Amino acid sequence: MQPLAMATIPEIKKTAETKMAKSIEALKNELQKIRTGRAHPGILDQVHVDYYGSPVPISQVANVSLLDARTITVQPWEKGMGAKIEKAIRESDLGLNPSSQGDLLRVPMPALTQERRKELTKVVKHTGEESKVAVRNLRRDANEQLKKLLKEKLVSEDDERRAQDDVQKLTDRTIAEVDKLVASKEADVMAV
């Protein structure tokens, strides 16, 4: 049997970099779901409506757009979907209360209380911490792979040390990016 081919130092660093970039994207998506005082169409992405027996996102059965900074409009593509969409939005855990005007649904965003804003900043911080943990786990995985290369005598100690330093720099940059995203979202949530 042939021994398994070990990843090279550039492959290990590239894999770590790719996975850390995916962690940042995942964090951005999570932060988008956290409500601020302003309206944005993406807030309805997780709301599903019954469409001929299967649950589908609202964006697949209606046009979702902004009327103004505090109001989302939902224009169903088929007659009769308006009531189902209205019911789905009401029953979601978003705390929204849509009103229908003919075929058009208006979804006003209620103003956030100071207490609710503080709760949301805690959620934002927690989400940021989860991302940092994920990034640190990726760093650990990369460093373990580098140590295996050294143990198998496939790289020198100097090369392994340099590669670990590079992985640490990548980790520091990624965590700084996480902190920046979290701070930005906190400011967004606290803005009245």
From TrEMBL:
Name the SUPFAM superfamilies on file.
Answer: Ribosome recycling factor, RRF
Under NCBIfam families, the record lists:
frr
Protein name per the record: Ribosome-recycling factor
Q: Which InterPro entries match?
A: Ribosome_recyc_fac, Ribosome_recyc_fac_dom, RRF_sf
Superkingdom assignment: Bacteria
Q: Where are the transmembrane segments?
A: none
* Gene name linked to the record: frr
Family, similarity comment:
Belongs to the RRF family.
Q: Name one GO molecular function term.
A: ribosomal large subunit binding
Gene Ontology CC entries for this record: cytosol
Residue ranges the record marks as coiled coil? 132-159
Q: Which UniProt keywords apply?
A: Coiled coil, Cytoplasm, Protein biosynthesis
Q: What is the predominant subcellular site recorded for this chain?
A: cytoplasm
The residue ranges of the Ribosome recycling factor domain are 27-190
Report the leader peptide range: none
Q: Which GO terms describe its biological process?
A: cytoplasmic translational termination
Where does the UniProt annotation locate this protein? Cytoplasm
What's the source species for this entry? Vitreoscilla filiformis
Function of the protein: Responsible for the release of ribosomes from messenger RNA at the termination of protein biosynthesis. May increase the efficiency of translation by recycling ribosomes from one round of translation to another.
